[in-house]
Amino acid sequence: MSTGSVAPRVAPARGTSIDDLLARVQGGHRPDVDETEQLLHAPLDALFGVAGALRDDGLALAGRPGVLTYSRKVFVPLTTLCRDRCHYCVFVDTPGQLNLLRKPTYMSPEQVLTVVRQGQALGCKEALLTLGDRPEERWPEARAWLDEHGFASTIDYVAHIARLITAETGMLVHANPGVMHPDELSTLRPVSPSMGMMLETTSRRLYEEPGQVHYGSPDKDPDLRLRVIDDAGAAGIPFTTGILVGIGEAVRDRAESLIALRDLDDRHGHVQEVIVQNFRAKPRTAMQGAPDADMHEYLATVAVARLVFGPDMRIQVPPNLSDPRELGALIAAGIDDWGGVSPLTADHVNPERPWPQIDDLAAQTAAHGYTLRERLTAHPEFVQDAAHWIDPALHAPVRALADAVGLAADVIPRAVPVVPRAVPEGGSGTSGGPDADLPSSARPSSSAHHAASSGTTSSSTTSSGAASSDAASSDPGVKRLAERAASDPLALDDADWTRLLRTTGAELDTLAATADDARRYTVGEPITLVQNRNLTSTGFRRAGRAAAGEFDLDDAAAIAADAADLGATEICIQGSLRPDEDPSGYLDLVRAAKRGAPGIHVHAYRPADVRDLADRGGLGLDGALAAMREAGVDTVPGTGVKILSERVRALVAPGDLDIDRWVEGITAAHRAGFRSTSVLFYGHVETAEERIAHLRRLREIQTETRGFAEFVPIPLLGGDVPLVAGRAPVDEHRAMVAVSRLLLSGSIAHVQIPWTRVGRDTAAVLLRSGGDDLGGTLYDGRVLPDTGIEQGLELPVAAAERLARSLMRPFRQRTTDYRVAPA
User: Helices 251-268 & 33-40, crossing angle to 10 degrees?
Assistant: First the structure.
C-alpha cells in the first residue's frame, strides 16, 4: 500500500546499552517485552529522536509525508448504563441517576439523529457510538427498554442506529460498544466500517485484586479483551485499540500490553491505530484523589509505542487530555494522529476536558512542522483496500466521503444507500441487521426501511424506529415542532419559532426538555463557571481617584493582582471612557492589569468602546483592534447592544452604537482573532419576531466568523414585559433559554444563565431548560470593590458547586475561552 520510499537501514549487532538498543530499533529490530520495559526507562530525548524518525518514515511510505490526521466526529452516548464498575469512570449512570437527571435509558433514534444531523451540517463524517458494556445483563430497566422496543440486545440496537445514521446522513459509524462476541462483530460489520475497544492494560492485578480499578468489572478481564481484539481481526474489521497510562499499572504491564497488541496485529493486520491515553482523575469517582498520569512516563510510553509498532502503525493521543503546551512534545514523541475531534459534541467520557478548536489544533500541528488532514473513521490504508477490509454494504458510503488517497474528501456527507446483507433462506437471524428479527411494531416502517436501503431520507424517526416524514410536515404539535427545531434549526420559519417562544404549561415543559436534551447530547452535562472580576472602565481617572467607583492605573494593577490572588483567571474591563480622558487609557488599563497579574486573561471592550478608541485615537477600527492585541487583550465582550433592531434601539437605548456599526465592530474583532460573547436583552418593547431575528443574525455572524464563544439571554432590568400575558417570569425565561439553545444549536455552543438577573433558584431551573454555564464569580475583591458594575453580587465557587450538585450534574471551572481552568 506504500507509495513512497525510504532508504533501508541496516540493524547493528545486538548490544546491551539503551543507545545500542535504540540504534537496533531504528534499524528495524522489533523489541521484545524485556527490551520494551528497558526502553520505557530511557531518556526522553533519546526516545524522541528515534520515534520521530520512525514516524516520519512511516508517513513517507504511506504517501503523505508531514501529515498528521484527525477525524471530524460527533460523539453519541447511546446509553450510559453499564454492567461494569470501573473506579475512574464518570460516563456511567445507574437507573436511579437517570431518573434524577431526566435522562432516557437509551437515546432514541430522534435524539441520535438530532445530534448527527447537526454534525453533518458542520462537515462531520464520523459518528462515534459509545456506550456501557451489556447494560441489560445488570439492569432490568435496560432489558425492559430493549424488550419494549423490540431489540434482542444492546448490540442489536447499536446496529439499527448505525444503519439509520448512514442511511439518513451519509456519515460513517465507529462503534465502540465494549466487549463483543464474534456473531456481534459480524452483525456490526455491515453498518460500521471500523470498531474499537481499548485494551487498557494486561494487568490481571488491576482486575482481580479488591480495590483496584477494574475489580468487579467483568468486561475488563484482559484475556477477554484480547480475545475480542483477536476475533475482530479474524472478522477482517479495522480496529482501534490502545492502552491507558497511570491507572495503577506497573511499567512492566505497559510493556506487556504493547507487545500483546502488536502480536494480535501481526496475526491479522487489522489494528488501524493504537491509542496511548493518559489517565486524568475525575471528580465523583473512587480515583478522584489519584494523581494524573506522570507526564514524563506518558511521553515515554507514547514514544515506546512507536518503537514497538514501527513506522507503519498510526499512534494516536487524545489532544483534549493534555495541556495545549504539551502537544508539541507529543508530536516529538512520534504520534501521527489526534483521533476524533468534535466541533459540536463534548467528550462524554472525559466531560471535564473540552476538545480543542480544530483550527487551533491545526495551528498547533503546523507550529511543529506538520500539516493536519482529516481522515475517515477507517484509516486510509483500509479505505484503499476496501475490498478486503470494508463490508460491501458500506462501499458506497465510504467511497462518497473518501478522496483519492483514502483520506476524507472536502464534502458534506449526504444520505447514501446502506445495502443490507441478504438473510439466509429460511432464516431470520441478525445477519441482515437487527431489524430482521424485530416484531412489526418495533421495526422501521416500510418507508423507513426503504430509506435505510435506498439512501432516501425521512425527516424524523420515532423512538420505536418508525418513519414519520409525513407526520413531521403536518403535525402542528409543539413536541413535533421542538424535535424538528432540535434536529434542524434552519428548517423552521419565524412563525414556528415565535410559536415556541410563546408556549406555556405542558407545551413549555416539552420545549424545555427537548432543549435540555439538545444541550446534554452536544455540550454535555458539566455546569461551568469562570472565576473573574469586573472593572468598569468608565470609572478610570488618570489623574487619580476622586469619587466612589473611580480608579487610576496603579489601582487597576492592584485590582487585577487582588483578583488573581483570590483565584480569578479573568478580569473583565468594559465601558466607554469619559470624553475628557485620553483614549490611550483603554490600552494603558489593559497593560496595568497585565502588570498587576501577568497571567490573567483580559476580557475587554465592547464594540462601542473599541469604536471610541478607533475614532478618538485616530487608529481606525482595524488599528484599534491591533493595538488592543498588542496591549494584552485576549477576548472581547459582545455586549453594548440590546437587540439587533433599530426600532428597539431608538425606543430603549438610543445611546447605544448603531446596529450596523455594532455588527461591523464585532465581526471585525472576530476577524482580528478575538473571540467574544453574544447577548440578547429581552422583556421590554421587543416582539417575539424581533427576538428570533436577533438570534438568526447572531447565527449568520457565527457562520461567517466562528467568533462567538457563548450566548447570554439577559432579562432587561425593569423591563419585565412578558410575551404571553400572565405568563410567570420564570416561564418567560425558560422559553427564552430553550429557544436560544435550539435555534443556536450547532452554531454557538454555550448558553450562559445570567444568575445576577434571575437569581440562583431560577438559574437552576434554566440550567434544566438548555443552559450549561453560569458565567463568572464576579468577585468584588478587597481592592476598591465599588469599581465593578455588579458590585455586591458574587457567586463563589463553592456555591456554584452546590447548585450543580443539586441538579446531579458535574461542575467544572473553566477559562474565559471554555478551556479547563488551571488548578
Answer: 130
Residue whose C-alpha is closest to residue 390's, from 262, 235, 268:
235
Q: Which residues of 145-174 are buried (b: 16+ CB within 10 A; e: fewer)?
A: bbeebbbebbbbbbbbbbbbbbbbbbbbbb
CA distances from 357 to 346, 360, 363, 669 (A): 12, 5, 10, 18
Alpha carbons 63 and 404: distance in angstroms, whole number: 12
Contacts of 359 (CB under 8 A, 6+ apart): 706
Would you call 135 helix, strand, or coil by DSSP? helix
Give buried/exposed letters for 395-417 (b at 16+ CB in 10 A, else e).
eebbebbbbebbbbeeeebebbb
Q: What angle do CA 355, 352, 278 make, to 5 degrees?
A: 75
The C-alpha atoms of residue 589 and residue 540 are separated, in whole angstroms, by 8
Residues 617 and 205: their CA atoms lie apart, in Å, by 68
Grid look-up 452536544 returns 522
Q: Phi and psi of 603, rounded to 5°?
A: -105, 100
What distance, in Å, lies between the first and last C-alpha atoms of the chain?
46
Residue 162 grid cell: 448505525
Angstrom distance (rounded) from CA 724 to CA 258: 63
Residue type, 678: S
* CA-based nearest residue to 170, from 488, 417, 434, 491: 417
Q: Residue 604: phi, psi to the nearest 5?
A: -140, 135
244, containing H or E segment = strand 239-245
- The pTM of this model reads 0.85
Helix (H, G, I), strand (E, B) or coil at 185: helix
Strand, coil or helix: what is 183? helix
Q: Which residue has the cell 508531514?
A: 66
How far is residue 337's CA from residue 58's CA, in Å, rounded to a whole number? 12
Residue 461 pairs with which residues in a beta bridge?
467
Cβ atoms of residues 190 and 421 within 8 Å: yes
Task: Give the C-alpha separation, 538 to 612, whole Å.
Answer: 12
Give the CB-side neighbour count of residue 410, counting CA atoms within 13 A: 1
Cell of 207: 482486575
> DSSP for 658-708?
PHHHHHHHHHHHHHTT--EEEEEEESSS--HHHHHHHHHHHHHHHHHH--E
Q: Quote the CA–CA distance of 20 and 457 in Å, as a whole number.
A: 60
What is the number of residues in the chain?
Answer: 823
Furthest-apart CA pair in the chain: how many Å?
A: 93
Q: What does the DSSP assignment read for 717-767? A: TT----SSTT--HHHHHHHHHHHHHHHHTTTS-EEB--HHHH-HHHHHHHT
Q: Is residue 732 within 8 Å of 738, Cβ to Cβ?
A: no
Going by C-beta distance under 8 Å and a sequence separation of 6 or more, which residues neighbour residue 545? 551, 552, 555, 784
Give start and end residues of each alpha helix (H) in 122-204.
Answer: 140-149, 154-169, 182-188
Question: Which one-letter DSSP state was computed for residue 820?
Answer: B
Three cell numbers written together for 190: 455491515
Average pLDDT, the chain: 90
pLDDT per residue as tens digits for the range 696-749: 999 999 999 999 999 999 999 877 889 999 999 999 999 999 999 999 999 999
Cell of 366: 503546523
> What separation in angstroms does the CA of 455 have from each of 164, 167, 233, 405?
10, 5, 29, 25
Model confidence pLDDT, tens digit, residues 155-192:
999 999 999 999 999 999 999 999 999 999 999 999 99
Element holding 35 (H helix, E strand): helix 33-40
Question: Distance between CA atoms of 104 and 149, rounded to whole angstroms?
Answer: 13
Instruction: Render pLDDT for 192-240 as a digit per residue (tens, 0 to 9).
Output: 999 999 999 999 999 999 999 999 999 999 999 999 999 999 999 999 9
**Separation of alpha carbons 92 and 84, rounded Å:** 9
- Number of Cβ atoms within 10 Å of the Cβ of 736: 24
